[in-house]
Design goal:
Layout: H1 7-12, H2 25-38, H3 41-47, E1 49-52, H4 67-76, E2 81-83, H5 88-101, E3 109-112, H6 125-129, H7 134-150, E4 155-156, H8 180-195, E5 208-212, H9 231-247, E6 252-255, E7 259-260, E8 263-264, H10 269-279, E9 285-287, H11 295-298, H12 305-315, E10 320-321, H13 325-335, H14 341-357, H15 370-376, H16 380-393, E11 395-399, E12 412-416, H17 442-446, E13 452-456, E14 462-463, E15 474-475, H18 482-490, E16 494-500, H19 521-531, E17 535-540, H20 548-553, E18 556-559, H21 567-575, E19 639-650, E20 653-662, E21 668-678, E22 689-698, E23 703-710, H22 712-715, E24 717-718, E25 724-725, E26 729-738, E27 741-749
Parallel strand pairs: 1-2, 1-10, 2-3, 3-4, 5-6, 6-9, 12-13, 12-16, 16-17, 17-18
Antiparallel strand pairs: 7-8, 11-18, 14-15, 19-20, 20-23, 21-22, 21-26, 24-25, 26-27
Helix pairs in contact: 2-14, 3-13, 3-14, 4-5, 7-8, 7-15, 7-16, 8-9, 12-13, 16-21, 18-19
The structure holds 1-deoxynojirimycin.
C-alpha cells in the first residue's frame, strides 16, 4: 500500500492510514491458534528469540553467535524479532528472509530504541516531563512513531517509566522523574502517542514500557546495580506507571537487569506472572532486556544458560533479547520437563497476537516504503512539533530582578560556554538512530534577535570526542581560555553562560558520583562572576545538578536539559521573551550529593523538626530540603492563588477549587498542582503526594477557577500485600505552584464499609 500524505496529516491524524478495522480479540485468537497449531516446537521457540542486527549494538557485544548463525536461524524461522535494524531497505532485506524463506513465513518484529525521536529529536524524556503537558508529550511520541515507522520500525523500546529519586543514575534522563502520579500520566500519554488508536495503521508502532521493575532504585545510582526496596515502595511508587501503560493497552513490557529482593527481574515470577499477567491481565508479551537472561548466571541465580532459559520462561519472560538462551537451550528444557509446553504456547500466542495487531500478516512490508521514508524523515512539521515541545520543557529556576527576558537589540550580550556553540550535546544520549551534530546551537538560535552578541568558549567540557558507545568522556582541565571569556563579560551588559553536562554524560551506563558542573565550568562561572554579576545561567544537562553556589549568586537560571534538534531556537525564544517559560521540575534538585536520593514525597520520620539539641532527622552540615523542589518553575508573569475551597461531595469524593490569577504584565501558562497527605493510616503515608495537576493559559489580569475532584483512586494506597485501601480519617490538602508552595486545607472522609 503506498500512501501519499503530508506531515500535517501524518502527525495529527493517526488513524488516516488504517488498513482495516481493529479485530476483536476472539477473531485474533482463532488466527493465532490456527498458526500455533502448525508450528513445530523449534519454530515456537524461534518466535521467542530476539536477535540484535548486524551493524549497531546497544549492549555488550555478544560472545556467541555470528552473522552466519543469525542468517541461518532467520531462514529456519528461529527468530521472532530483530533489534537495531532500521531503514526501509535494511528492514525489507531481513523481512524477506523471514517471510519468503522460512517454512511458515511468519513476519518479524523490528525493535529499536526510539526514545525521543528517530531522526528529528525531541527533548530528552526527563525534559519533556518538565512540560507537565500530556498532549505535547503524546505528540512528541507520535512524531517519533511517524518517523520510525517510515523507516521500517514497528516496535519501540519506550517509554521508560522507571521512577527514580537518585540523580546519580544516568538513566534519569530517559524517564519521567520522581513521582508516580505524574509518571503514570506520562506513561499513558507516550503509549497513546506511539500506538495511536489503531496499531495496524502504517504510522503507529508497538510500545514497550520498561524496565519491569525497580530499575530506577539502583543502589547508589550505579546503573544495573542491586535494588532492595520493600513492597510498599514497589506497589505505591514503582508500579503505578506500568499499570497505567497496561491500562492504556501497551503491547509489550521489558523486564530489567536488576535483582529485586534477591531475584533477577527476568526470572521473577511474582512480578511477571502474579502481578503483570494475572492481577493486571496484561495480554501483550514480556521481552527480556539485552542479555538479561544470561546475566542471571552472573547474578548467581542460574547455573548455566540452559538453567537461565528455564527460569526466565517459567517466570513469564516471553522473548529473549540477545542471550541465545531460548534459541539454543529452551527445547531441551521442554523435552526434559523443566518447562511445560503450555508456557511456550502462552508466550508464542502473545507474540503472534502483537504481530497480527500490527497488520504484519496482511502486509509484512507495511513499514518499508522508501518514498514515505524519504518524505518524512526530518519533516518540517516534525521540526515545528519538537520545537514546541522544547519550549515547553524548559524550567525557569530563578529570575532575580527580572533579568530575563533579555531585551532585543538593546543589550550587549556576552555568550560564554562551550555548550553554546555545540550542535551535538543538545541531542542528548539516546539518539543512535539520528545523526550526530544536527542540533541548532544556542548561538545560531540567538542570531535572529538582533542583539549585539559576542562569544567566548571559556573552556571545553571534555577532552576528545565522545560517542554513543565509547566510555565516559574525560573532563577538561584546561583554563587557558578563561581570560578571553572574562574580558568579554566585562565589556557586556549581560552574560549568558551556557554550562552543564555533555550529552554523553547521562544515559545508560553513565552514572556519576558528583552532581556538579563537570570539568572547570564552576571555576569559569566564578571567574566570570567576578567581572560581571549580570549572569543568566543556561543549564544543559541530563539530570538534576546540585549547584548551591549558582543558586545563591547567579541572578537568573534557566534549566534547558538536552532539548533535541531544535534546541537553540527554542532556548532563544525563551531568553528573548518570545515564549514565556512554563515548565516545572519533575525531579527535586538537591543542595548536595549527600542528600540523594531525595524526593518531595518523603516520609516524616519520627523526628522531623530540628530544635536546638542534636537528636533530629537532619544533617549537621546541610538543610534537608532541596535546592529547587519538585514542581518548581517560574514564569515571566506572576500567578496568585486565592479562594481555596474543599468540599466533600459524597462520602469518598472531594471537590477542591482554587482561583488562579495572572497578576503580571504578560500572558503565561501555569501548572496548578494538588497534593494530599493522609494524616493517619494503617501504613504511614508520605508528607505529600501529588494527586492532580492542571496546565492552563492566562492573559494578564485574567483569573480562572480550577476544579479538582478526588475520588477513591486518589485517596487510597496499597498495603504491603498489594491490596488497595481507602481509609477513613483526616486528609490535608495543598494546592499551589510547586510542591513547596500553596494554599492548604483539609477534609475528613467517612468510615470504610460506609461507601456510597
Ligand atoms: C539495554 C537497555 O536497558 C534497554 O532499555 C534497551 O532497550 C536495550 N538495551 C536495547 O537497546
Amino acid at each position: 500500500m503506498t500512501n501519499k500524505f503530508t506531515g500535517v496529516l501524518l502527525v495529527f491524524s493517526i488513524v488516516t492510514f488504517s488498513c482495516s478495522q481493529p479485530e476483536t480479540i476472539d477473531e485474533l485468537d482463532v488466527k493465532v491458534n490456527d498458526l500455533l497449531a502448525q508450528m513445530t516446537l523449534e519454530e515456537k521457540i524461534g518466535q521467542m528469540n530476539l536477535y540484535n542486527g548486524f551493524w549497531d549494538i546497544t549492549g555488550p557485544a555478544p560472545q556467541e553467535g555470528d552473522a552466519a548463525k543469525k542468517y541461518a536461524d532467520l531462514e529456519q524461522g528461529y527468530v521472532g524479532a530483530m533489534l537495531n535494524i532500521h531503514g526501509t531497505e535494511n528492514v525489507r532485506k531481513i523481512q524477506e528472509i523471514a517471510v519468503n524463506q522460512s517454512r511458515l513465513g511468519i513476519p518479524l518484529l523490528f525493535g529499536y530504541d526510539i526514545i525521543h525521536g528517530y531522526k528529528t529529536l525531541s527533548p530528552i524524556p526527563l525534559a519533556e516531563a518538565a512540560s507537565w503537558d500530556m498532549e505535547a508529550i503524546e505528540m512528541s511520541s507520535r512524531v517519533a512513531a511517524t518517523e520510525a515507522s517510515a523507516a521500517g520500525i514497528n516496535w519501540t523500546f519506550a517509554p521508560m517509566v522507571d521512577i527514580s529519586r537518585d540523580a546519580r543514575w544516568g538513566r534519569v534522563m530517559e524517564g519521567g522523574g520522581e513521582d508516580p502520579y505524574l509518571g503514570a500520566k506520562i506513561a499513558s500519554a507516550r503509549v497513546r502517542g506511539f500506538q495511536g488508536d489503531d496499531l495496524s495503521a502504517a504510522n503507529t508502532i508497538a510500545a514497550c514500557a520498561k524496565h519491569f521493575a525497580g530499575y530506577g532504585f539502583a543502589e547508589a545510582g550505579r546503573d544495573y546495580n542491586t535494588v532492595d526496596i520493600g513492597t510498599i515502595t514497589l506497589y505505591n511508587e514503582v508500579l503505578p506507571p506500568f499499570r497505567s501503560a497496561v491500562n492504556q493497552g501497551v503491547r509489550t513490557i521489558m523486564n530489567s537487569f536488576n535483582i529485586l529482593n534477591g531475584i533477577p527481574a527476568t526470572g521473577d515470577t511474582f512480578l511477571q506472572r502474579d502481578i503483570l499477567k494475572d492481577k493486571w491481565s496484561f495480554n501483550g508479551f514480556v521481552v527480556s532486556d539485552w542479555g538479561s537472561t544470561g546475566e542471571m548466571i552472573t547474578h548467581g541465580y542460574a547455573r548455566d544458560l540452559a538453567h537461565a532459559a528455564a527460569l526466565a520462561a517459567n517466570a513469564g519472560s516471553d522473548m529473549d533479547m540477545e542471550s541465545y538462551a531460548y534459541v539454543n537451550h529452551l527445547k531441551a528444557q521442554v523435552d526434559s520437563g523443566m518447562v511445560d509446553i503450555a508456557v511456550i504456547d502462552d508466550a508464542v500466542k502473545r507474540i503472534l497476537r502483537v504481530k497480527f495487531e500490527l497488520g504484519l500478516f496482511d502486509d509484512p512490508f507495511r513499514y518499508c516504503d522508501p518514498e514515505r521514508e524519504k518524505e518524512l524523515l526530518y519533516h518540517e512539521e516534525h521540526q515545528q512539533a519538537v520545537r514546541d515541545m522544547a519550549r515547553k520543557s524548559m524550567v525557569l529556576l530563578k529570575n532575580e530582578g527580572n533579568l530575563l527576558p533579555l531585551s532585543r537589540g538593546r543589550q550587549k550580550v556576552a555568550v560564554i560556554g562551550a555548550l553554546a556553540d555545540d550542535n551535538n550535546s543538545p541531542l542528548g544520549s539516546w539518539r543512535i538512530s539520528s545523526d550526530d551534530s544536527t542540533a541548532v546551537t544556542l548561538l545560531e538560535g540567538m542570531e535572529p534577535y538582533g542583539a549585539e552578541i559576542t562569544y567566548a568558549k571559556g573552556a571545553d567540557l571534555i577532552t576528545g570526542p565522545a560517542t554513543f558507545l565509547n566510555n565516559v568522556p574525560i573532563n577538561q582541565t584546561d583554563k587557558s581560555e578563561f581570560r578571553q571569556a572574562v574580558r568579554l563579560a566585562r565589556r557586556s551588559d549581560v552574560v549568558v553562560m551556557v554550562l552543564g553536562e555533555h550529552g554523553f554524560q547521562s544515559g545508560e551506563g553513565r552514572s556519576r558520583t558528583r552532581l556538579d558542573l563537570p570539568g572547570v565550568q564552576q571555576e569559569l562561572l566564578e571567574a566570570v562572576f567576578e567581572a560581571n554579576q549580570n549572569i543568566v545561567l543556561v543549564l544543559m544537562n541530563g539530570r538534576p545538578l546540585a549547584l548551591p553556589w549558582a543558586a545563591e549568586h547567579v541572578p537568573a537560571i534557566l534549566e534547558t536539559w538536552h532539548l533535541g534538534t531544535q534546541s537553540g531556537h527554542a532556548i532563544a525564544q525563551v531568553l528573548f521573551g518570545e515564549y514565556n517559560p512554563s515548565g516545572k521540575l519533575p525531579m527535586s534538585f538537591p543542595r548536595s550529593i549527600g542528600q540523594v536520593p531525595i524526593s518531595y514525597n518523603r516520609y516524616n520520620t519520627g523526628r522531623p523538626d530540628a530544635l536546638d539539641i542534636v537528636f533530629w532527622s537532619t544533617y549537621t552540615d546541610e538543610a534537608i530540603d532541596p535546592l529547587f523542589p519538585f514542581g518548581h518553575g517560574l514564569s515571566y508573569t506572576n500567578f496568585e492563588y486565592s479562594n481555596l475551597s474543599v468540599q466533600l461531595v459524597d462520602k469518598h469524593r472531594v471537590e477542591i477549587k482554587v482561583t488562579v490569577s495572572n497578576e503580571g504584565r504578560v500572558a503565561g501558562e501555569e501548572v496548578t498542582q494538588l497534593y494530599i497527605r493522609d494524616v493517619v493510616a494503617s501504613v504511614a503515608r508520605p508528607i505529600k503526594e501529588l494527586k492532580g495537576f492542571r496546565k492552563f493559559h492566562l492573559e494578564p489580569g485574567q483569573s480562572e477557577t480550577i476544579v479538582f475532584t478526588l475520588t477513591e483512586n486518589e485517596l487510597g494506597f496499597f498495603d504491603a500485600k498489594g491490596n488497595f485501601k481507602v481509609e477513613p480519617g483526616k486528609f490535608q490538602v495543598m494546592v499551589g505552584t510547586s510542591s513547596a508552595e500553596g494554599l492548604s486545607g483539609e477534609f475528613t472522609i467517612g468510615p470504610v464499609g460506609d461507601q456510597p
